[in-house]
Design a protein that fits this description.
heterodimer, A: 0% helix, B: five-stranded mixed sheet, four-stranded antiparallel sheet, 45% strand
Chain lengths: 113, 111
């Protein structure tokens, strides 16, 4: 298994600003992912964070809006840029340790006013 | 990845077995069945996965039909802490390991 922490756990931000969310894992992992969970909805994959190369984004998500960094095998950041109230969601990172099950962080609850 | 169908909600009495069904009639030969759950306001938690054979771990049992078109997650002695949304996901794993979450089943365990 893997222990995952996220910072911040929650934040309230103003429209037009940006927020960077950090994800730290207690061991080196190959695959890291970022998900979004809008209020009352299920999880949607934003992108796969690749170490040493650009992230791979899912349909409907673009790098300019959600830039991702992955400087090493234990850390990644997701930035939510130029925020609007529609970006209010829980953002979760996850890792795959053995290529099978995924382990999720506790999430970052973002409210945009 | 194959699509899954789950009932939107189920109830279970505390101490009884909870049997959560999942239909995945379009599953292909190399796809696994995964189960996750999400307790309110927490990140999803991996429960169990299987390919063809039935699987059991400390949390649950997974029963997959012989034709692999459906499966059942069994929580043998449900507790109030098992109240959560349960997601059945089909995925081939490996380098294409991305989870597609449906709406899941809200299991409510009643005292």
């Amino acid at each position: 298994s893997a222990v995952i922490s996220q910072k911040p756990s929650r934040d309230i931000c103003q429209r037009g600003t940006s927020l960077t969310i950090q994800c730290q894992v207690d061991s080196q992992v190959t695959m890291m992912f970022w998900y979004r969970q809008q209020p009352g909805q299920s999880l949607t994959l934003i992108a796969t964070a690749n170490q040493g190369s650009e992230a791979t984004y899912e349909s409907g998500f673009v790098i300019d809006k959600f830039p991702i960094s992955r400087p090493n095998l234990t850390f990644s950041t997701l930035t939510v840029s130029n925020m609007s109230p529609e970006d209010s969601s829980i953002y979760l990172c996850s890792v795959s340790v053995a290529g099978r099950e995924q382990f999720f962080g506790p999430g970052t609850r973002l409210t945009v006013l | 990845d194959a699509k899954t169908t789950q009932p939107p909600s189920m109830d279970c009495a505390e101490g009884r077995a909870a049997n959560l069904p999942c239909n995945h009639s379009t599953i292909s030969g190399n796809e696994y069945v995964y189960w996750y759950r999400q307790i309110h306001s927490q990140g999803p938690q991996y429960i169990i996965h299987g390919l063809k054979n039935n699987e059991t771990n400390e949390m649950a049992s997974l029963i997959i039909t012989e034709d692999r078109k459906s499966s059942t997650l069994i929580l043998p002695h449900a507790t109030l802490r098992d109240t959560a949304v349960y997601y059945c996901i089909v995925n081939s794993g490996g380098s294409n390991y991305k989870l597609t979450f449906g709406k899941g089943t809200l299991l409510t365990v009643n005292p």
